Amino acid sequence: MRRDKVNESLSDNALERAIRVRQVQRHIYASPQQQDISDQLAEEMPVALVFNGISHAVMLATPVDLEDFAIGFSLSEQIIDDLGDIYDIECRETPGTLGVEVHLHIAASCFARLKERRRSLAGNTGCGLCGIESLQALPAQVSPVSYGRRVAPMLHKSSLRKAIQALGIQQPFNILTGAMHAAAWVDLEGHICLLREDVGRHNALDKLIGAMSDGDHAGNEGFVLMSSRISYELVQKMAHANIAILAAISAPTALAIDIAERSGICLIGFVREHGFVVYSHPEMLVAE
User: Fold this and answer.
1) Whole-number Å distance between alpha carbons of 76 and 210
2) What separation, in Å, do the N-terminal and C-terminal C-alpha atoms of the chain show?
3) pLDDT (tens digit, 9 = 90+) per residue, 205-243?
4) Is the separation of the CB atoms in 239 and 259 below 8 Å?
5) ∠37-43-48 over CA atoms, to 5°?
6) Residue 257's pLDDT is what?
């Protein structure tokens, strides 16, 4: 997709918030002359998540789809149980600072639970255990995926190929900047139904989970495809969101595989047009 076509597909407001233009110098080894050009950079700023007036987390994120981000973070961190626990969301600019505050009014029972385990989070584009206070707390953070009366989704190999072929051209911010991760919800036929982008891979997944929470996609079987490596916190968020298949273009860590095994999540890495690697629960794949 050409960059001018990408610009046509995005709203002016989204472009303004997600991308900053800066003059840079381009150097080419074969030429003694430098080129003065305008470059498009991915925006990254502190986003404070404020629950019932109390600031709980400050994450570095791309300032678009922030309501999706706040909802997805609240679900994947088990601050709320479902979307109905959020009564109101408001994004507020913070004069005199570089950041944005997202204020959520949540159910009293959820807020009481949050206060009991309240912790200070300082996230970045490569955050680790996202605020876990001790190693002893780690096992309690993992939830097994529950299918209820449904059987586990069965994924055809051709669907992975179709999805990975489409992923790059459906990342408009990354096409412009080259600095964004994507998390996509893909149906079992390989069609990308929903996609969110962010400078942080965990933020992109939270945005996707938040965007899916309205129910339009929640009842459909499918999988998540990401343009990143697979680390522990991504598997944790998948388990909390009750999504059974996570595929990505890069490798998982050993801890991510361990958690996926325990959570019943099929982990697929190195997804390319020519093939992929399955690290856990291969029974969810079907040969063709």
Assistant:
1) 9
2) 31
3) 999 999 999 876 655 689 999 999 999 999 999 999 999
4) yes
5) 165
6) 96
Catalytic residue among 127, 130, 193, 266: 127
Q: Are strands 54-61 and 121-122 parallel, antiparallel or unpaired?
A: parallel
| 49 token code pair | 């998540």
Query: And the tokens for 132?
Result: 């876990």
Q: Domains along the chain? A: 45-139 (3.10.20.10), 155-286 (3.40.140.10)
Q: How far is residue 257's CA from residue 142's CA, in Å, rounded to a whole number?
A: 13
**Confidence grade of residue 116 (pLDDT, cut at 50, 70, 90):** confident
H helix count then E strand count, the chain = 9, 15
Q: Which residues of 16-41 are buried (b: 16+ CB within 10 A; e: fewer)?
A: ebbbeeeeeeeeeeeeeeeeeeeebe
Cα–Cα distance measured from residue 260 to residue 277, given in angstroms and rounded to the nearest whole number: 14
127 flagged as catalytic = yes
Q: How many CB atoms lie under 10 A from the CB of residue 166?
A: 16
Angle between helices 232-241 and 254-263 (to 10 degrees): 20
Angle at 86 between CA 83 and CA 90, to 5 degrees: 120
The pLDDT assigned to 151 comes to: 56
